[in-house]
Write a structure and sequence with these properties.
This protein is an alpha/beta fold and 401 residues long. Among the domains are: 151 residues, NAD(P)-binding Rossmann-like Domain (Rossmann fold, 3-Layer(aba) Sandwich), CATH 3.40.50; 70 residues, Rna Polymerase Sigma Factor, Chain: A. The chain is 46% helix and 14% strand. The strands form 2 sheets. Strands 4-3-2-1-5-6-7 form a 7-stranded parallel β-sheet, with helices on both faces. A 4-stranded mixed β-sheet has the order 9-8-10-11, with helices on one face. Helix 5 links the parallel strand 5 and strand 6. Helix 14 packs across helix 15. The longest helix is centred in the C-terminal third of the chain and has 24 residues. The chain is globular.
Amino acid sequence: MKSLTLLGSTGSIGTSTLDVVRRNPDSYRVFALVAGSNVESILQQIIEFRPCVAVLASAAGRDRLARALSDSGLPRPNWPELDFGPAARVSAAIAPEADMVISAIVGVAGLEATYEAVRLGKRVGLANKEVLVSGGRLVMDAVRQSGAELLPIDSEHNGVHQCLRAGNRDQVSRLILTASGGPFRNTSKEAMESVTPAQALNHPTWRMGKRITIDSATLMNKGFEVIEACWLFGFSPSQVDVVIHPQSSVHAMIEYSDGSVLAQISATDMRMPIQYALTWPERCQAPVPKIDWSQTRQWDFAPPDLDRFPLLKLAYGCQAAGGSATSTLNAADEVAVEAFLEGEIPFPAIAAVVEETLSRMPRQEPASVADILEIDAESRAVARQLIASRAAVPAAVPTRV
């Protein structure tokens, strides 16, 4: 039986992982649940899965959870050890009782705990994009040194991982990642000026957290996936292509030097890649619908429009530039997305803020997690200043003729 530490237990990946655990009680048990501030959700998870450790982001969150546990009637001997903060996240990830860590915290908050688990040589199921976007070289150096197993949970990278099992890696000339195109794949550049947060959050295929949903609408999420793919599989940015595939049935493809293409195809259900990461190298029955090949279907593919979605192009450039560029890309994007959701900037300004932040931040070579977090903080500060300066500029008043 595998024992799991789940970083980000109350998010969409976390709840899907727990559903896989729920359906396989003889195969997995939960050692630690790590969440942000959603006390209500982690309380129900504790009652059902009985972890040994539960970690919240803050002391206030831990105290609220303690009160909620007391009110729930769960006998105190059945309570997990309660803790909070970054050090507690790391402790839960590196605990010897944890056979595998699922890294699903959104943002750089999950970087240190994931990195330390990798350094210890643990198996890590990676669903946190920022780990490799911000700290790709550092993390992959640790993978090579420790022999850790870093298994991607994102459907696209999980698909590439499966495809690469089929042949000689040296004969693969490029990777193709698919993108649904988000809710604005057919929206004109002019119409994007008036896009609302509610419209941007209405993803046509997946149900995800707010930031990743907005990143999917701008194609920034696909840019992050290009960066991740380069680190995970050892490809250059020029060897990773993106194609728009609205049906989201083909998750990834690999092309061999002779032109042959292999594709990974499955239902749009995150429990499949999660279970693959848990059971690898074996395969087991997954609680997802299978494709009915007796039904007529149409799959469309088209290149992305980099003029309407400039963040994807920026991501390619940042990965090619190397160093701290991708850390700044991620930090500025997170700040800009938050500002858009709060109504502080229009949708196209997300890309403008990110691009300007990149131009103002010097390129550095981070050598530690602390370096990456410092670059992240500096980049966020620059992005916030840019947003504040935009807000300070009064709107143009029409001239009376």
